[in-house]
Amino acid sequence: MNKFTYTAALALAAAIASTGCVHRPYDVSAIPPTRTEVADQNPVTYSAPPPVQTQPPVYGSPVPEPPPISAPAWAKDPKALAANTLHFSYDSAVIRDSDRAHLKAVAKALKSDRSANLMIEGNCDERGTEEYNRALGERRAEAAREALVGMGIDGDRIHTVSYGKDKPVDTSHTAAAGTHNRRDDFVVLHPNTGA
Questions:
Q1: First to last CA, the chain
Q2: Which end of the chain has fewer CB within 10 Å, C or N?
Q3: Burial of 80 by CB count in 10 Å (0-12 exposed, 13-18 middle, 19+ buried)?
Q4: How does 44-77 read in b/e, with b if 16+ C-beta sit within 10 Å?
Q5: What is the CATH number of domain 71-191?
Q6: Domain range list for the chain
Q7: 3-state SS assignment for residue 187
Q8: What is the spatial distance between Cα 85 and Cα 186, in angstroms, rounded to a whole number?
Q9: What distance in Å separates the CA atoms of residue 149 and residue 159, rounded to the nearest whole number?
Q10: What is the sign, positive or negative, of the torsion defined by CA atoms of 49, 51, 53, 59?
């Protein structure tokens, strides 16, 4: 009888082991259909999201850039507006309130000489990569350009260029040098009658 009980118990254990326990999974959602299944049932078009603006424009939407200038057709006068250079805080393209008077003086000069154009040169200090400083210099020049357009200057007369950290006015590698080098220079462009 013991042999029979032992055999029965062994058979019962084998049956339980082969059957296993049935578990129901918790919080399982259906697998979403593949893209082709969705396309077959209901065609969907996917588009990329719009680019994110890192900094809002100073005066509304950006002003379209004028066509490139032809260098021989213009004579550069970098000294005419040198006293009106704009300076920027570190890593910023925001025009300071203290520099608004300089922008007004530049706008007044352009209004009094309607034959002249303007080149705004954006500059940075020595910190940061070449690529980053080129982009920051361009944002600084564009900020001044948009401000001048907001003051009534035709955007086609204003050109921008970024020199990044390539044209420092102070090469002493000090904090004061950085303050002097983070700037927008204004260069008046007069029509070159000899061109």
A1: 122
A2: N
A3: middle
A4: eeeeeeeeeeeeeebeeeebeeeeeeeeeebeee
A5: 3.30.1330.60
A6: 71-191
A7: strand
A8: 7
A9: 12
A10: negative
Burial of residue 93 (CB within 10 Å: 0-12, 13-18, 19+) is: buried
pLDDT tens digit string along 18-62?
Answer: 555 555 544 544 555 544 444 445 444 444 555 544 444 444 445
Cα–Cα distance, 183 to 86 (Å, whole number): 5
As separate numbers, helices (DSSP H) first and strands (DSSP E) second, the chain gives 5, 5
pLDDT digits (tens, 9 = 90+) for 121-144: 999 999 999 999 999 999 999 999
Q: Which DSSP string do the residues of 26-92 spell out, in sequence order? A: SSPPPPPPPHHHHHHHS-----PPPPPPSS--SSSSPPPPPPPP-GGGEEEESSTTGGG-EE--TT-
